[in-house]
Amino acid sequence: MKSALITGITGQDGAYLAKLLLQKNYEVYGLLPRRSTPSIWRLQFLGIQEEVRLIAGDLTDFSSLSRAVALAKPDEVYNLGAQSYVGTSWQQPVLTAQTTGLGVLHVLEAIRLENSNSKFYQASTSELFGLTEDPVQSESTLFYPRSPYGVAKLFGHWMTVNYRESYDMFACCGILFNHESPLRGMEFVTRKVTDAVARIKLGIQKELRLGNIEAKRDWGFAGDYVEAMWLMLQQEKPDDYVIATGRTTTVRDMCKIAFSHVGLDYEDFIVVDPNLYRPAEVEVLLGNPDKAKRKLGWQARTSLQDLIQMMVEADLERVRKEVSGK
Ligand code: NAP
Ligand code: F7E
């Protein structure tokens, strides 16, 4: 039986990946940072909380990572833990650098110093491209991050490449474009919209305040994207891959899809609030997933329409239960 250690197991991707690995008969360990209230609701939602083994630890605490690697003896380590919200990275840039940047190095060092042969996956991001001049971004596109989050991820990305080249480590970076699901955090724009659509439809919210609705993103479904993470670690050689759908859509059009699913016109409810604009914006992202298709046999299966409808339906069900007190 193979074993895997997932940092960020309580997050959106961590929960879906844990489920996928359990289905593949892995022993799944997850790093659990200390929180004052329980943080395992996504594992509960997927019904896998009893099947994973949680090890207390934090990405900012090297010793806890070293201990986690020694305990789990993982064949594969997936580093998904991060302060992952771009907006917060301007308010807490140091925490973001320590978690999202230095945290990667802590995991790499824990693997190296434990003499572990673990394969390593790093959660890199399309935010690395930032203010790119390439209309379509691939593995060879230059990086130009636009937020403290993007800069921290750049450090983690190059550290991973460097450990691969310096120590012959089997280390891969997945450069993933935005991916969403009913388990997406409420602060991200798709979930903010689908939650608001449910509340407006059920009569408990009147309007939705958004920032830059002309920004364009290449959105896919998280359930599809975790399969690409696993596939990267099953190849003969470690490499980096762009994971995307190859289509881009404005926030505005994503809202249109969400509102029209419940028979509403988004223009009647959206208020653009300049206070929600970011200090520096990534205006357009569009990924080229050709390499992943060619080498991993991976492609996105879920359309944006289906994804948003799935999220609206899940939020309608949850808000209905909240309202009825059941
Ligand atoms: P997420 O839902 O925000 O999950 C982040 C996870 O990291 C949570 O489990 C969180 O635990 C954990 N974490 C935060 N600080 C930590 C610390 N100091 N020590 C240990 N764990 C810590 O993010 P996601 O959407 O699943 O994304 C997974 C990874 O992919 C992240 O690295 C993200 O930056 C990257 N990424 C995401 C996307 C996307 O579109 N989703 C695209 C590209 C890359 P708590 O919940 O307890 O804080
Ligand atoms: O913003 C615009 C906002 O916060 C998307 C993370 O998973 O994907 C994610 O980062 C766009 C931006 O995601 C609101 O300005 C307008 O242009 O959903 P988001 P993100 O910043 O793209 C990447 C790949 C990651 O790696 C990150 O970890 O939507 N936008 N109005 C808004 N965004 C938010 N959150 N809220 C608004 O009201």
Q: Kindly state the mean pLDDT as a whole number?
A: 98
> Unreliable stretches, pLDDT < 50, 5 or more residues?
none
Distance between the termini: 40 Å
State the fourth-level CATH superfamily of the largest domain: NAD(P)-binding Rossmann-like Domain
Total beta strands = 13
Shape: globular
Q: Compute the number of structural domains.
A: 2
Number of helices: 11
* Largest beta-sheet details: 7 strands, parallel
Give the DSSP E fraction (strand runs of 2 or more residues).
Answer: 15-25%
The small molecules bound here are: NADP nicotinamide-adenine-dinucleotide phosphate, ligand F7E
Give me the side-by-side strand order of the main sheet. Answer: 3-2-1-4-5-6-11
How large is the radius of gyration?
19 Å
Structural class: alpha/beta
Task: Give the H and E element order.
Answer: EHEHEHEHHEHEEHEEEHEEHEHH
CATH topology of the largest domain: Rossmann fold
Q: Name the helicity range.
A: 40-55%
CATH architecture of the largest domain: 3-Layer(aba) Sandwich
Short recap of the structure:
It is built from eleven helices and 13 strands. The chain is of the alpha/beta class.
Q: Care to describe what's here?
A:
By secondary structure, the protein is of the alpha/beta class. The protein folds into two domains: 3-179 and 221-243, Rossmann fold; 185-218 and 247-282 and 302-324, UDP-galactose 4-epimerase, domain 1 (Alpha-Beta Complex). The chain is 42% helix and 15% strand. The protein is built from eleven helices and 13 strands. The chain has helices at 12-23, 41-45, 62-72, 88-91, 93-113, 148-167, 189-201, 222-232, 251-261, 290-296, 304-324, and strands at residues 3-7, 27-32, 53-56, 76-79, 119-125, 171-176, 179-180, 208-210, 216-217, 220-221, 241-243, 249-250, 270-272. The chain has a seven-stranded parallel sheet with strand order 3-2-1-4-5-6-11, sandwiched between helices. The protein binds NADP nicotinamide-adenine-dinucleotide phosphate and ligand F7E. Ligand F7E is lined by residues 84, 86-87, 125-127, 177-178, 187-189, 192, 210-213, 215, 217, 251, 276, 278, 281-282. NADP nicotinamide-adenine-dinucleotide phosphate (NAP) is lined by residues 7-8, 10-14, 31, 33, 35, 39, 58-60, 80-84, 99, 123, 125, 176, 178-179, 185.
